[in-house]
Amino acid sequence: MSHPITSLSMHRQPTELVENRVCFAGPHSELSIYDTYEQANKVSLKSDALLYCGMVTGAKVMHTRHEQNIAFMPHESFILAPKEEVFIDFPEAQLDRPTTCLTVEISQERIAQICDRMNDVNNVDGLSPIDPNKPLHTLHTQGTQQVLDRLVSDFVQNDPDRDLLVDFGVSELVTRILRHHGREAFLQFTKTMPDANGLTNALSFIEANLAHPLDIDHLSKLACMSRSRFYQAFKRHLGCTPNEYQHQRRMNVALSFLKQRRSVTEVSMELGYQSLSHFSRRFHQHFGLSPRQVQNQLN
């Protein structure tokens, strides 16, 4: 994300030392880039619409009504629900090294349109609909980072198709947010009701065997489906293939282990990687940061 943000330096001459803002309007959305040039505490941020926040450089500490002292670092995503207020500390901001983040404000109408479509596809008896306003704070994937880079470029460019490209980018960003919520909800549903249906049965087996190679034929039998029907059902509800899902779960579990201050070698072995270098490469491909970089951020 550094490239498209850095290219906007001529538009970002500071008039304020705290949360100096440059904004760009788009269809159903607005991009804002904030630079802070001095240390500050308890700076308020609030929006009438859902607010996606992404860190670019530096670090913040966020305080919401649900949780205090949330470290917000580069390559992380944070979702602020409509009308919810967050208070922000800037412990590292300096005049020659500002703390920079971006926000994308997205209209409730656009989110509702995409959410309704996803809930129709993911309809499962007993599973609650996706809630787009749920809290989210996570190290986002390299794919999400690429969407953000492209979206920033689309917002600021002078192109006859600009609004169309921005709308595509915002839709993809919203889809990724909702997919994250949907998978988390499906996983929690599976943990409480592993025998609810064939798909939850197979998902429960994958979760219990993250360190082992997948046997699709065995998973299909657990789901009481043919191999092709199992693939179709899995992709419809989880948005990816079983192998892709296992990889994503491995990466998320690895991240949670690293946040528990466990060693990279221990995490690699526990998740079934035969080579430390292979694990580190896959982690970097997924998150855009190496396991060591994540550990350094925690420190």
Automatic annotation (TrEMBL):
Origin: domain of life: Bacteria
InterPro entries: AraC_XylS_family_regulators, Homeodomain-like_sf, HTH_AraC, Tscrpt_reg_AraC-type_HTH, Tscrpt_reg_HTH_AraC_N
Keyword Nucleotide-binding attributed: no
Keywords, sorted A to Z: DNA-binding, Transcription, Transcription regulation
SMART domains assigned: HTH_ARAC
GO MF annotation list: DNA-binding transcription factor activity; sequence-specific DNA binding
This protein's record includes keyword Acetylation: no
SUPFAM superfamilies: Homeodomain-like
Pfam families reported in the protein's UniProt record: AraC_N, HTH_18
The HTH araC/xylS-type domain, residue ranges: 200-297
The protein's name: AraC-like DNA-binding protein
Organism: Marinomonas communis
